[in-house]
Amino acid sequence: MNDAAKMIDLDAALRMVDNTLADVKLHGETIPVRDAVGRVLLSDQTSQVDLPPFDKSAMDGYAVLADDERDEYRLLETVAAGEVGTKRLEPGATVKVMTGAAVPPGTGRVIIIEHTEQYGDTVRVLEHSGSTNICWQGEDVRRADTVLSAGTILSTVDVANLIACGLTEVKVARQPRMAIISTGNEIVDSPALLEPGKIMNVNAPLLAGLAKEHSLVVVSEQCVPDDREAIAQALHTALDQADIVVISGGVSVGDFDFVIEALADAGLKLHFCRVAVKPGKPMTYASASGKAVFGLPGNPVAVYLTFHLFVLRAVALMTGAEPGMREFTLPLASAFRRRKGERVEYVPCKLIRDGALEPIKYHGSAHLHALTQADGFFIVPLGVTELYTGDTVTFMLLTRCRV
Asked: For the segment 259-300, what is each residue's pLDDT rounded down to a tens digit?
């Protein structure tokens, strides 16, 4: 058995991906901030303005000088948001300000409207409180503060913050290009073709959807039979177009699994083809000329998991993001047992309201529908066969929680 064919542990497999892609970096491009959701920052971003940019009222109310507390004030003027007042505050006087409006210089607090009564130009105070009700200039962000660091995968909130900080363009890594190859004589793309022995090709749309969620550009989708020459030709075509090629199926040791041989035919270096992880044991990785090829097991839950563990790691390395998934330590809501502990196991589960993890009903890695009820996976370490209610485990969050 050659070294690449030996089963290796998950950490070793991830390190191998890291090592082979350490020097692979996609070039950068400058794009409008509004278009940058999901993209990876290539440099630290600093604010061009103070936030707030001026002292402003947090409430509709009456601005008064600091230490000028009395029961009645003379109203000078009313200032709406977007306007600048013309009157100066003085003892015994007030300016009515709307939420978001700039307060006059020297304002110490804003008395909210609900605590006052107004009679013509006289404002009577019904209740004094200790709150200033003022958002002070720069209290959130100061000009030249670093607001986001290089390597950040920009969320919608991140983009909104960059815009608030006066940034209109940002330099980001180019979106990785991904090619998808589905293998198998049994898969079809139309229900009309579902004869005995055939199944729907779910892995291609699953991978295409995941690519879209993570800002990858799918440059091609190919569906090929279990044929060594056809798979090798599909690889050649995909490698001409993509930075990352993802193959589903054909990576095990069956009589009609030809992906390993086809990788060699396509001139790729095989790094591993068996990983001590469940689901996903036949996980395969090869590379050539700065391009990564991942052979994912054919069952869709394994495809989903290994995409997150391996493909997204490659994406992070190529774009300058921090590799790795979001993980938390949480208690189990019920016991879990398995017969063997020879692999790290990822168990689909949901997060319940008391902050515990509940395994969901799950029949194995072909049971894709189970993931509709899952918030992620809890991890059963190598060598562990039994976990008890209340035991803490590592939880890998993958979806929007349903709690």
From this structure: 999 999 999 999 999 999 999 999 999 999 999 999 999 999
Say yes or no: domain 3-26+174-319 is CATH 3.40.980.10: yes
Q: Give 286: exposed, middle or buried? Use CB within 10 Å, 0-12, 13-18, 19+.
A: buried
Q: Examine residue 348 and say whether the peptide bond preceding it is cis (omega within 30 degrees of 0).
A: no
CATH architecture designation of domain 327-397: Beta Barrel (2.40)
Residues of the chain with pLDDT under 70: 1-2, 256, 400-403
CA distance 301 to 373: 13
pLDDT at 242: 98
Contacts of 47 (CB under 8 A, 6+ apart): 141, 142, 143, 144, 145, 147, 165, 166, 167
C-alpha span between 282 and 226 (Å, rounded):
16
User: Distance (Å, rounded) from C-alpha 296 to C-alpha 373?
Assistant: 23
Going by the DSSP 8-state scheme, the letter that residue 6 receives in this structure is: S
